[in-house]
Amino acid sequence: MIGWYVHHHGAGHRQRLTAVAEHLREPVTGLSSLPAPPGWRGDWVLLPRDDGPGTADADPTAHGVLHWAPRHHEGLLERAARLTGWLHDARPALVVVDVSVEVTLLTRLAGVPVAVAAMLGDRTDRAHRLAHDVADLLLAPWPARTEPGWPDDWQAKTVHVGAFSRFDAEPPPSPERLAAARAAWPAGAGRRVLAFWGSGGDDVAVADRSAVRERTAQGWRWLDRGGSAPASPDLWAELHAADVVVTHAGHNAVAEVAAARRPAVVVAQRRPHDEQVARARLLHDQGLAVALDAWPRTDAWPALLDAAADAGGAAWARWSPGDGARAMAAAVDALAATPSRRDASSGSPGSAQVNRSSHLGTEGAEEVGS
Fold first, then answer.
1. pTM for the model
2. Which residues form the domain of 11?
């Protein structure tokens, strides 16, 4: 049995679990303050929220050692009791934590091995260092490289699997689906821009987007999805129908664009530890997209869209090889196996990194509450 903790902020952590779970040999139980995703076939432990009333002036960082552990908070106490009760009753082989320093520590203090879903950005603060130090395995959903600022012992237990998304196994949409998707754009002769945003927050003002649409109206037609706009009825088809995609630099948004191999302008939004800024810079350095640290000036957009269209989307194969979810599942299953089975089969987590890095080549948040 494997436990998998899913952070409640945004939709991306839950999507990552569902993508990996179908490839796991071990049964998996979800642990989260979110409800189980639609169609989930395993067990699901619903945890109380720890970020409700009663958190003000309660030293949530425990003198700077943690990210979120407010004193005398009933929700936090209940979720800790429910989690440790499940650990006692289920006796899991390991727990994957995506993401929470506090859940990582609580699980490891109970004597259960922990695999931590690593994230880009500056993770050298005291709380992150503690969680990464105690982790048995760090799972990095981006291409293999030496992580800047990471100590050698973190590097040695990191498995880079490449980015992955819910669309990795999807065939190209049919002509009928593409035609229906194209009909969603405003009528006109310009090329199509799909701008889509996640549920974890949106930094771009409506007025700024309107100004960009007006500035590019001579050559481009825009369709907004997600965030404050309606969700897409068929995002996979709309991605393929777009000439250029504009999106934020979150893990899942970038992975979905990469799976569709679409030209893109990727704009980092403000997130803890500069996660999206780090991803945008990595995309820029590897030449995978027009990637920016922040929303650019309105008059820059015609050139940005043209540059993205000219670059195309073929380079995304270096970011998203198509088997990232399967590779992450294999790393988790290897850690869940008994030491004798693990030693006899795939070696230590460190050797798994060497094999995976060879396959991928060398190109190139905790939120409030836990």
1. 0.85
2. 2-162+323-360
